Amino acid sequence: SNLSWLGYGCLKQDWTLIAVNTIGAALQTLYILAYLYYSPAKRPVLLRSLLLLAVLATGYGYFTLLIADAQTRLARLGLFCSVFTISMSLSPLADLAKIIRTKSTRCLSFPLTIATFLASTSWTLYGLQLHDPYITV
């Protein structure tokens, strides 16, 4: 997600998107490396990471080599980023179902929930300021 939004920021030449997503991508890389280092089963984790890198390379090729027009590229990449971000926001629904079923919030990280809410609200307001529907979503 961070790398997709970083690409979108580079296309738009939006330094806010570039700075935030560069830091986010660096932190996510650190998290992945720490997970890989401490994971008892390294092979499956490494294979999944390599598969995701292949998907990333394929996406990069699609957006840079197959779409020549910059405006079309920006629109398609913006749509991809929005859909990907929405899917990331929907992923905790499984935890929500578990919370309702067990009537326990043990699997819910309240600080993460609040931080995600505040970050999402901030990006929505930023997108509204720029009149950018992809960032707003």
Automatic annotation (TrEMBL):
Primary place of residence? membrane
How the protein sits in the membrane? Multi-pass membrane protein
Pfam families, sorted: MtN3_slv
Q: Where are the transmembrane segments?
A: 15-38, 50-68, 74-96, 108-128
**Which keywords fit this entry according to its UniProt record?**
Cell membrane, Golgi apparatus, Membrane, Repeat, Sugar transport, Transmembrane, Transmembrane helix, Transport
An example molecular function term from Gene Ontology annotations? sugar transmembrane transporter activity
Q: Where in the cell is it found?
A: Cell membrane; Golgi apparatus membrane
The source's domain of life comes to Eukaryota
Listed under GO cellular component are:
Golgi membrane; plasma membrane
Family membership noted in the UniProt record: Belongs to the SWEET sugar transporter family.
Q: What is this protein called?
A: Sugar transporter SWEET1
What organism is recorded for this protein? Answer: Thalassarche chlororhynchos (Atlantic yellow-nosed albatross)
The coding gene here is Slc50a1
